[in-house]
Structure formats: structure tokens, C-alpha cells
Design brief:
Length: about 270
């Protein structure tokens, strides 16, 4: 599992503004996953700012792919103000660019999601970019642990969320995850099985979510990427341009004072 250089050394998201002004091509796709709206750990302020930067052309893209688990559960009573702002921004974005919502294990029935936001829902999609044929799917179909051991999965999730809650840096939560042999085996199985499935689909790249573990593995014949999540710091996402997929980080590059300046839904974020 290899983090790409761009994920390790990502600069300010406002760099995209300079790149756009210099005539850099619009992305073929931007990919995010595992937002978990309704969860206390959802990094909603950062995501509002991120989506507004797409709307404002700071980070232009032809398509936004939501690769599963946008919701933590289909219980709208758990959604907070910032969570509703995300849904509202997505709804407005759907009138401007193509948005595809790939079903995750937390998302619930596709018809609810599709009606709510007016976006296309699917279990998986294939996107051609440059010389790459890219398969996108959430990845939970390859996770046998959650179906075999639902109680243990629930208990592990509670510990993980508790560690995130008591430590705002998320250091201990990530440390626990990366030192869990069960988690690492599950993550490796998802990677291996998704690569095998992509080969059957004649794709040379596969992108998943689900594990919350950002990955860019380009060592094999079929490249494997995982877009990480928006419940940890730093948050991660993927960009696709002319067949090149890059793993990017976001959270640490957005100063708190900028987050406080994010205006009402639909307003242009200040980048001064």
C-alpha cells in the first residue's frame, strides 16, 4: 500500500485557482467517498468548502463521483446544519456537472438517494480517461467480515469513533486501525478482490472506498486506489485527468479562519 507523493505533500487547495488561471485542463473526474453524513466525525465544514471550490471553478471537473457511504445511516434526524448544507450544495452541483452516486453499505435504497439529490445512482461505473479504463465501486461487496461478524464490527466501529472523538487529531484512531491485523487483512482482501474483479471487466485501474484507508498502489498490472474518507484528518480524494489518477489530501491545507468564512450554501467561499 503506497501513498502517492501528491497525497504526502499536497499543497493548499487554493493552488487549483492558480492552475485554473494558467489554463490547466478541467479534471475528468473528482472522487470522494465515505462522508458519513449524520456521524459526529463527519468533517462537514471542510467538505462544504471543498464542494464550493468545485462550484466556483477553483477546482473544475466534468464529473463528481461519490464512491459510497455518503450517509452514515438513512436517519435524517441525525443530520446537522452543515450536513444539510452539503446535500444542498450537491443538489446545486448536479445542475452544473455530472454527479454519480455509487451505493455503499451505509447508504440505503438507491431510489431514496436518487430522488433526494437528482443524481445518477449505481453499484459500479466504468469511466474511460486517456488510456485508462477505470472501474469505480465502493468495495464492501468484498468485505466478508462485516457480514460474518456484525456484532464485532459494530463494537470495533464504536471504539474507532470514540478514539476520534477524544482526539481531534485522529492520531490514535488511525494508529489503532493501522495496527489491527483484522482490519489490515480486510483492507488487503478488498484490494486483491477488486483488482481481480477489474481484470474481468477489462479495466486497468480500480478505485474503491469503504476501508477509509487512502491508497495508491501502482505496482501491478492493474492499479488500485482508495479515496480514503471524510471522517478523518486529513481528508482524502482522487483526481482523474487524461488517465492519470492522483491521491490528494485536503483538510490540513484549509486554515480554520477560512472555514469560518464559508458563507451560506451557494455563496462563493472567500480565498483572499
Amino acid at each position: 500500500m503506497i501513498l502517492s507523493e501528491s497525497a504526502q505533500t499536497a499543497g493548499s487547495p487554493f493552488d487549483f485557482q492558480a492552475r485554473t488561471l494558467q489554463g490547466i485542463a478541467v479534471y475528468d473526474a473528482v472522487v470522494i467517498s465515505d462522508i458519513h453524513l449524520g456521524s459526529d466525525n463527519c468533517q462537514a465544514k471542510y467538505l462544504v468548502h471543498f464542494l464550493e471550490s468545485i462550484r466556483d471553478g477553483i477546482m473544475p471537473t466534468k464529473r463528481l463521483i461519490l464512491n459510497g457511504d455518503v450517509f452514515d445511516s438513512i436517519d435524517f434526524r441525525r443530520l446537522k446544519k452543515q450536513h444539510w448544507r452539503i446535500l444542498s450544495t450537491l443538489r446545486k452541483l448536479s445542475d452544473e456537472i455530472e454527479i454519480t452516486w455509487i451505493n455503499g453499505n451505509h447508504d440505503g435504497p438507491a431510489e431514496i438517494v436518487s430522488h433526494l439529490l437528482g443524481v445518477t445512482c449505481s453499484d459500479e461505473i466504468i469511466v474511460e480517461s486517456g488510456d485508462s479504463k477505470i472501474l469505480f465501486l465502493h468495495g464492501h461487496r468484498f468485505d466478508e467480515f462485516i457480514s460474518r461478524y456484525p456484532v464485532l464490527t459494530w463494537f470495533a466501529d464504536r471504539i474507532y469513533h470514540y478514539l476520534q472523538k477524544i482526539d481531534k487529531t485522529h492520531y490514535f484512531a488511525k494508529l489503532a486501525k493501522r495496527n489491527s491485523k483484522i482490519f489490515l487483512r480486510c483492507a488487503q482482501k478488498i484490494e486483491t478482490d477488486s483488482i481481480r474483479y477489474a481484470a474481468k471487466k477489462a479495466c486497468n485501474v480500480v478505485c474503491c472506498g469503504h476501508t477509509h484507508l487512502p491508497v495508491a498502489n501502482t505496482r501491478g498490472a492493474i492499479n488500485y486506489y482508495n479515496s480514503g474518507c471524510w471522517t478523518e484528518k486529513p481528508c482524502h480524494y482522487l483526481t482523474v485527468l487524461d488517465g492519470i489518477i492522483e491521491l490528494q489530501s485536503y483538510t490540513e491545507a484549509v486554515p480554520e479562519e477560512v472555514l469560518e468564512r464559508v458563507g451560506p450554501v451557494g455563496a462563493v467561499p472567500s480565498v483572499a
